Amino acid sequence: MTQSPPAVDPDLALVRRAVAGDYGAFEELVARHDRSLYTLARRIVGSAADAEEVVQETLLSVVEHLGDFAGQSTFRTWLVRIATNHALKVLRRRRTHPVVSAGIDDDERLPHPHYIAPWRKSPDEIAQDHETRELLADAIDRLDEKYRVVFVLRDVEGLSTEETAQALGISEANTKVRLLRARLMLRERLTSAFGDRARQVTSAHEHEAEK
Fold it and tell me: Nearest CA to 185 among 113, 123, 125?
């Protein structure tokens, strides 16, 4: 079976021009990515003001280190890593200890779902609805920070497990555990809004509690 060639980075030509001193090329790169960088930062840090700070710090880092971009990943992925590092600095500044720990979550069990039911509409139909997108954004915001960051990088930004782990300085195993927890928690929160209560499944531990 013939493998398709790797996709060409759409930003690579602009990056090369910018490195060569073409400021107009750099401005075009900023125009392409500044809004999506803001959205990423806002999802991680929550605050609009902090998200703006993250974007500014990211762009400053890009100016300083654009010549170091080696092209081993796409320019977009490189940007996401830089923005994530600055966003994590904001989160750490809010607390007396780092939000994202490099340790393995051995003592954490997967959340036990309390509400299990088929959804009234298909996921595609739900995704079309503006109110649904707002509910999803709110559910993501309510995740614990370490799960939210992994979910945003892996499922929203599309980074690989390896890339996500590298960006956060944690193991791939830990990344997978946190991602699964985030997905399960989001699934339950959205099911409580979109599940068909007439077809709700009562979990086994609830049956035991009723005895």
Answer: 113
Q: How many other C-beta atoms can be found within 10 angstroms of the C-beta atom of residue 149? A: 25
- Summarize pLDDT for 6-28 with one digit per residue, the tens: 568 899 999 999 988 888 999 99
For residues 205 and 128, state if they share a domain: yes
Q: What is the pLDDT of residues 31-62, one digit of tens each?
A: 999 999 999 999 999 889 999 999 999 998 99
Look at the pTM and tell me if it is higher than 0.85: no
Q: What is the number of domains present in the chain?
A: 2
CATH at 130:
1.10.10.10
Alpha-carbon span 74 to 143, nearest angstrom: 28
90/135 same-domain check: no
